[in-house]
Amino acid sequence: MKRIGRLLAILVVVITLTPPAAAAMQKKYALLIGNEAYAPEVGPLKNPHNDIGLVGKALESVGFAVTTHKDLGYREMNVVVRRHIETLREAGAGAIGFFYYSGHSAADQRIPPKNYLIPVELEHSRVMGGFGRVARRYE
Predict the structure, then answer these.
(1) How many domains does the chain have?
(2) Which listed residue, 2, 19, 36, 134, has the most CB atoms within 10 A of its CB?
(3) Which pLDDT value is given to residue 132?
């Protein structure tokens, strides 16, 4: 919950420092993904749906068009992220994009480092260590 509080505080500061006329004219789009329905072996989570709800309300209050998704698999996550990117491209150079993910993730510390967002269809926690290989199969 501290993480959400810090994120919201940063968001408020950024929005507060944006001149009102500029903020009113900018197109702002947010994509929020909350994955919590993981298999018992991976470890279901309790807060991602609440997290994206809180962040979504805060973003809407400052003029963002918010799109939320819950419990997505790999292909679904790929589709919604690509759709978000396309929306931002179509909106033009002045558009503001925001992405927030709440769920399991994994980090690969090799050079260059990579981070992975873990989809809900993952069946066993041992796979998380090799998720980079799984993700590359879908690319």
Answers:
(1) 1
(2) 36
(3) 47
Distance separating alpha carbons of residues 77 and 129, to the nearest angstrom: 20
In this structure, what DSSP letter does residue 104 have? -
Q: What is the pLDDT of residue 136?
A: 47
Task: Quote the percentage of the chain above a pLDDT of 90.
Answer: 55
β-partners of residue 66 are 30
Q: pLDDT, tens digit, for every residue of 46-87? A: 999 999 999 999 999 999 999 999 999 999 999 999 999 999
Residue appearing with tokens 């298999």: 39
| C-alpha to C-alpha distance for 45 and 33, rounded to whole angstroms | 13
Domain CATH number, residue 115: 3.40.50.1460
- Tell me the one-letter amino acid at 52: I
Q: Does a structural domain hold residue 102?
A: yes
State which residues form the domain around 91. Answer: 2-12+23-138
Is 8 part of a structural domain of the chain?
yes
Q: Residues 1, 81, 108, 35: is their CA dihedral positive or negative?
A: positive
Rounded CA-CA distance 66/82 in Å is 15
Structure tokens belonging to residue 4 = 């959400």
